[in-house]
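Example 3.2
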Amino acid sequence: MRYLVFTNTPAHVHLYKHVVSELRARGHEVRVLVRDYGCTLALADAAGIPYSVYGGCDTTKRSLLANLPGQYARSLTAAVRFDPDVVFGIGAYAAPAGRLTGARTILVHDSEPTSLDHHIARSLADALLTPDTFRDDLGPNHRVFHGFKESAYLHPDCFSADPSVRADLGVGDEPFVVCRLNAFGSHHDVGQGGFTVEQVRTLIDDLDDHATVFVSDEGGDLDVDATAGRRFDLHPARLHDALAEASLLVADTQTMVTEAALLGTPAVRSNSFVGADDMGNFVELEARELVRNVASFERVRATALDLVTDDGASDRWESRRRELLSETVDLTELLVNVAENPRVIDRVAGVTRRSPGPAAGAGRSSTAD
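Structure, written as tokens:
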């Protein structure tokens, strides 16, 4: 069969990289369309995925909107020329490509605030796969799996951390913290925000007495050299190795927080999404005591210090991680089975119809203090 896969962000590359490799190994023809955004191309290169670039943009909303028409034109032209049997993606590029070519369109979503993507997907996609913690009902084609989007690349069957990253970072056996900062440049980030530059400086000063602080700043707003922290300057493909070895993640982003949970690393998450209407996966991860969702910056400071000085935290998180992973699917395996059975995905093990009513965890509240 012929598969067209859209990877618009670094997270999309991670989601589909093993699926692409496995489908090719089974003799299928796969074409990957990549948007040059952040470190997307670097990750695709590291994964050994042949790809074509259909456009690019930086991490600002203005750049996203300015480049949108050209990206649609190039991606749809490429889709028609390839003539796929099945289209995979996440965002609003894959669904129109599937409709235009007559291919089956299968999308993976995990973020409730991306309402534009959901509106397009509900109208055009043949199947929308989400974690079973997803709070919104996406209609009759909505299917769920027990796990997380990140289960496609951090499930133990897909990933083993490389501890040599410690030597590459120059920290030896000493504790270190990863501070991840979001650019908030996507369309679903309109009106949203996270840490200010001054707050990040304060966090680094707080944590520097207890651990080396590595900063991964998507937007590039912080002058890391003017702080006590260090820039994370390894290849972006090593970030999961570093995250697995870290004592703590403090972040105002989303994906990396879920990644930390699946790797057994304590995580403090704080942004304007935190609260009673938070995304279902973070509500679930907090209920499992793998993530702390905190709205107040002073509570972020206190929570981060508590965790980085807690000698027993690593063992407790590892135990919780193992329990979580024992219950969740290998999403790569599931997606490959879906790919090979695109018209009967309800027969694929691990895929179920979404039940009416609130999703699992929807009644719990994130920490809003």
